[in-house]
TrEMBL record, chain A:
It is found in: Cell inner membrane; Cell membrane. InterPro entries: AA_ABC_transptr_permease_3TM, ArtM/GltK/GlnP/TcyL/YhdX-like, MetI-like, MetI-like_sf. GO terms for biological process: amino acid transport. It comes from Devosia ureilytica. This is Amino acid ABC transporter permease. It is a multi-pass membrane protein.
Automatic annotation (TrEMBL), chain C:
It comes from Devosia ureilytica. InterPro entries: AA_ABC_transptr_permease_3TM, ArtM/GltK/GlnP/TcyL/YhdX-like, MetI-like, MetI-like_sf. The keyword Membrane applies. Residues 91-384 form the ABC transmembrane type-1 domain. This is Amino acid ABC transporter permease. GO terms for molecular function: transmembrane transporter activity. One of its GO terms (biological process) is amino acid transport. PANTHER family: AMINO-ACID ABC TRANSPORTER PERMEASE PROTEIN YHDX-RELATED (PTHR30614:SF37), MEMBRANE COMPONENT OF AMINO ACID ABC TRANSPORTER (PTHR30614). The chain crosses the membrane at residues 21-43, 82-115, 127-149, 185-205, 217-244, 264-283, 365-387. It is found in: Cell inner membrane; Cell membrane.
Length: 375, 266, 396
């Protein structure tokens, strides 16, 4: 080994990859045709797409009857989706039986909600605390009076008339607003050193999580009136809210507990060493950190809650899904082969847009939090 | 990046077995290039390793040193040039890859022990399923190598119960159980606490003393001085300089080598 | 400086109200009192309400005749059956749809979860679209879709769509041939049992042989040959035969065959599709949780791909997958209660619905129904605790 010493005289500059590692051909080689089995899968996948996509396109667009179409067109033998049905019943799907001249009131509620929610979701926006108080306390109260009426000369509109997307949104927003603090209290109770409080909280959380929401709504619907003093009537809307809130708070408690457990012991000890009382420690030190940790989990519970609102038909509320179902079954003037399908697809699209949007947001927050903790 | 250090092992090293073959080529890398997508990670690599050589590859992080040794047992695929290990050229042919991997052991920075198996099962898994060794024999071999790395008493524990240094020694023993002709070390001590580095280096030195062909990517310059017969310096995906350790450390030629050594040796 | 004397003096007493122990006790007493008061208030109200409505309480109604029809039952059911039988019918129907849903959702979910990780762009995209589409739409909506928009839109019985193997789809659900094994067929079952025992023995032998000599034996292929071969051999030798009672279309309905009612089909299908999307995510997360270094270590030891998966990757992934998978199974069982909304006679529908309405025993019916789900849940978590204790990776 005489030639062991070696010094490079000229540095090799980077040169572009041969076609085999970059460019569309390389992409197809690695992602579509890397092995014979892979090629078979690709071919099967393409065949599947060819089989599925054209009929779907035809149903949704090609042969579909547009929003301005007529029921006769929808009844034609090759007609696709009947979007005309959706556009003609849109008001019912959004507001239910809410009085038509008063629909500006829900509209304001929607707009106000969007206005308050947007800055809340953008992490960089300031005044978070004020915003939260506005959104979680002032907004629901204001919305209630605006929607229900009876003050400032607004016409009274009973909750029986509320319906459609309006109800879906109200129940999910109020459900989350109420179940959030309840969930925090339950989670703190579960972590508590006091045996009675701990037992009560654990029992409640585990019982609620063990049973399906439908049984809790049955209970709210049938047993809540029995529990109240004689002569009290419990509004249907309130029954739905109680059921949904109790249910969600148990799940929320578990999410919050995850956050509490993720806080290092040192934080508890540090707070204690500063001479803070229990509630001070929780409010100023522990909860802000724990809740920030579990924002994705909270959003996920919200998605679940949003989907679960479709069950409030059990107490007789007409949420979006129930509104669509009612029209599908009863709108004789729109009867055609595809009316029901179109109705459900419309509802599915609305739910999907909301849930998918929220799940993207949760992933975005998760990545943000992850980078916050990585060094 | 982990702190490079100068851990040395205070004992004289027995060089009697450290014979380097003049004719027997263990690894031959010829005009090799590799890209990650559009990034040219390895450029014009030429490296011939003779049987019994002990090579240390040094260089700043991101210089492609780990990628190079990962190409040698085809954990990474190269796009141009040739890599010939023990006379077998690495191509996409799975049989050849298996042949090469059976002869080449690899030790990773993060040990990569199988956490669901005991130490003994970690060691016997490959001999039983790859070589078809009877279990009793594989276990005897495993115990032999566990004694070599001085932890036979841990045989029935799980990896999670061992310290980092012990885990890395088990990982070395696991590779040795396949009786490889070549050992590759990919920063074996970078993830270890300082006091554990030494116990791993001891094992590596004893391997060198037995004449094992080794390529080590490491920041342990003390180890390089004591054991290596060649030090290779890589930067920007290419071999910048190579020399015997004495000459390499005392008289670096290339500007980049000088810069690197001045940073790493203070 | 202070001297530290331990135990000699009693620590200076905090003032009565600032002692944390006493405070804790006071808090608890307050909470317990409020809670008990609240419960008593509810009980009082309930009693008053029930009295006002002239309703009685108690579980005696379980031994009264129910007098209603149940459209689908695994047990013999007549209008003269008792309420406790109605409970059993509902419970069995819940279990039936849950077991079938779990079976298919597991297969579909694992397939899609693995497909999401495929290096093939088309396959992984299709799997991603499936997951993102399905899990963001409420299950109830999906059930309505399958039941009202798809199954109810099927042709009427007399125009039923005929599929291969004498299967028909119509508004009334799916009709399949009903297998009628003859008396000799019992031997085939015995043959199958024998084959299973043989396969288990073979696996054991192959493992012992591998350990002793290092020789591998193609267990999987041989097992399939034994299972199919031995069973069909017995079938031929014993002269057993299965005749099929084919569904025959008559004027208004089908005669013969096995009828799967549309409610059952829609519910089982909907639960499978929905839960599979969650199982797929569980599986994907489990596989991703296995460090890439594990594959590399196995590769560098020369293990072939099959062995890498079987010996290194799958055992580790399963530890991560099984706990959330179980809770998905539990969710599926709970979600089967949505069958009530499309008229499938499962527990909630039969017991918390019809029976409750007929007897007026709201508290009893709902309590029993909830207790059933609570027992499911407790059983599952007991099994999970046992499993987790068994497979937990030992840490320092």
């Amino acid at each position: 080994m005489t030639d062991i010493g070696y010094v490079r005289s000229d540095i090799v500059d980077a040169r572009p990859a041969p076609n085999r590692t970059s460019g569309p051909v390389a992409w197809m080689r690695t992602n579509l045709f890397s092995t014979p089995f892979d090629t078979v899968l690709t071919v099967l996948g393409i065949l599947f797409l060819l089989w599925v996509v054209p009929p779907l396109y035809g149903f949704f667009f090609g042969n579909a009857v547009g929003p301005n179409g007529t029921v006769e067109e929808c009844r034609m033998i090759n007609a696709g989706a009947c979007w005309a049905y959706i556009s003609s019943e849109m008001e019912f799907f959004i507001y239910g039986f809410y009085d038509i001249p008063e629909q500006w009131r829900p509209n304001i509620v929607f707009a106000l909600g969007a206005l308050l929610l947007t800055p809340l979701l953008i992490p960089r926006m300031p005044f978070k605390r004020t915003n939260i108080v506005l959104f979680l306390v002032i907004y629901p109260i204001l919305s209630y009076f605006l929607l229900a009426g009876g003050v400032f000369g607004l016409k009274v509109i009973p909750t029986e008339k509320w319906g459609g997307l309006l109800v879906t949104l109200i129940i999910s927003v109020i459900g989350i607003t109420l179940s959030f603090p309840l969930g925090i209290i339950l989670a703190l109770g579960r972590q508590s050193q006091m045996p009675i409080i701990k037992t009560v909280c654990v029992g409640f959380i585990e019982l609620i999580r063990a049973v399906p929401l439908i049984t809790i709504l049955f209970m709210a619907s049938i047993m809540l009136p029995l529990f109240m003093p004689q002569g009290t009537t419990v509004d249907k809307f309130l029954r739905a809210l109680v059921g949904v809130t109790l249910f969600t708070s148990a799940y929320m408690a578990e999410v919050v507990r995850g956050g509490l457990q993720a806080i290092p012991r040192g934080q508890y000890e540090a707070a204690e060493s500063l001479g803070m009382g229990y509630w001070q420690r929780m409010w100023f030190i522990i909860l802000p950190q724990a809740l920030k940790h579990v924002i994705p989990g909270i959003v996920n519970s919200f998605i679940a809650l949003f989907k679960d609102t479709s069950l409030v038909y059990i107490v007789g509320m007409k949420d979006l899904l129930e509104a669509v179902k009612t029209k599908n079954d009863s709108a004789l003037e729109w009867q055609s082969a595809n009316t029901a399908t179109t109705g459900y697809l419309f509802a599915a699209m609305v739910f999907w847009v909301f849930c998918f949007g929220m799940s993207r947001y949760s992933i975005y927050m998760e990545n943000r939090l992850n980078t916050g903790y990585k060094r | 990046m982990s702190q490079p250090s100068e851990t040395t092992v205070e004992r004289s090293i027995n060089t009697s077995h450290m014979q380097i073959s003049q004719t027997d080529v263990a690894i031959d890398v010829i005009n090799m290039h590799k890209w990650y997508g559009d990034f040219h990670v390895l450029r014009d690599i030429n490296l011939r390793v003779m049987s019994g050589e002990r090579i240390v590859i040094a260089g700043p992080s991101g210089s492609g040193k780990s990628t190079l040794i990962r190409c040698v047992n085809r954990l990474e695929e190269h796009q141009e040039g040739q890599i010939i290990v023990n006379g077998t050229e690495l191509t996409a042919d799975l049989k050849r890859i298996d042949d090469v991997r059976r002869e080449v052991g690899m030790v990773f920075q993060h040990f990569n022990l199988f956490p669901h198996l005991t130490i003994l099962q970690n060691l016997t898994l490959a001999p039983i399923w790859v070589r078809g060794t009877p279990k009793a024999e594989a276990e005897a071999t495993a115990m032999h190598y566990l004694e070599r790395v001085k932890i036979p008493e841990q045989a029935h524990k799980f990896p999670g119960q061992l310290s980092g240094g012990q885990q890395q020694r088990v990982a070395i023993a696991r590779s040795l159980c396949m009786q490889p002709k070549i050992m590759l070390f990919d920063e074996p001590t970078s993830a270890l606490d300082p006091e554990m580095v030494k116990e791993v280096l001891e094992v590596m030195i004893s391997l060198a003393e037995e004449g094992m062909t080794m390529i080590c990517v490491t920041h342990e310059m003390g180890f390089a001085r004591q054991v290596a017969n060649r030090v290779i310096f890589m930067d920007q995906g290419q071999i910048i300089e190579q020399n015997e350790p004495e000459a390499f450390f005392s008289n670096p030629q290339h500007e980049r080598t000088k810069l690197f050594l001045s940073q790493i040796l203070h | 400086m202070t001297t530290f004397d331990t135990g000699q003096k009693i620590a200076p007493r905090a003032s009565f109200f600032n002692d944390p122990v006493i405070r804790g006790i006071i808090y608890q007493i307050v909470v317990a009192t409020l809670l008990i008061g609240f419960i008593l208030w509810i009980i009082g109200n309930t009693a008053a309400n029930l009295a006002a409505q002239n309703k009685t309480t108690g579980f005696d109604f379980l031994w009264r005749t129910a007098g209603f029809d149940i459209s689908f039952s695994l047990l013999p059911w007549t209008r003269a059956s008792y309420y406790w039988e109605a409970f059993l019918v509902g419970l069995l129907n819940t279990l039936l749809v849950a077991v079938i849903g779990i079976f298919f959702a597991t297969i579909l979910g694992f397939t899609i979860g693995i497909a999401r990780l495929s290096s093939n762009f088309i396959i992984s995209s299709l799997a991603t679209i499936y997951v993102e589409l399905i899990r963001n739409i409420p299950l109830l909506l999906q059930l309505f879709f399958w039941y009202f928009a798809v199954l109810k839109a099927m042709p009427a019985v007399r125009d039923a769509i005929q599929l291969p193997f004498d299967t028909f789809i119509s508004q009334r659900g799916i009709m399949v041939p009903k297998p009628l094994p003859d008396e000799q067929f019992v031997f085939v079952w015995i043959g199958l049992a024998l084959a299973i025992v043989t396969v288990i023995a073979l696996r054991y032998w192959a493992k012992k042989r591998l350990e002793a000599t290092g020789k591998r034996f193609p267990v999987f292929l041989t097992s399939i040959v034994i299972l199919l071969g031995l069973t069909s051999l017995v079938y031929v030798i014993s002269g057993a035969s299965v005749s099929f009672e084919l569904p025959v279309l008559e004027r208004f309905n089908f005669r013969g065959g096995l009828q799967l009612p549309p409610e059952f089909v829609a519910l089982a299908f909907g639960l499978t599709i929905y839960t599979a999307s969650f199982i797929a995510e569980t599986v994907r997360a489990g596989i991703l949780a296995v460090n890439k270094g594990q594959t590399e270590a196995a590769q560098s030891l020369g293990l072939k791909e099959n062995d890498r998966l079987r010996l290194v990757i799958v055992p580790q992934a399963m530890r991560v997958i099984v706990p959330p998978l179980t809770s998905q199974y539990l969710n599926l069982t709970k979600n089967s209660s949505l069958g009530a909304a499309i008229g499938y006679p499962e527990l909630v529908n039969v017991f918390a619905g019809t029976s409750l309405n007929q007897t007026g025993r709201a508290i009893e019916c709902i309590a029993i129904t909830m207790a059933v789900y609570l027992i499911f849940s407790l059983l599952t978590s007991a099994i999970m605790n046992w499993y987790n204790g068994r497979v937990r990776l030992v840490e320092r």
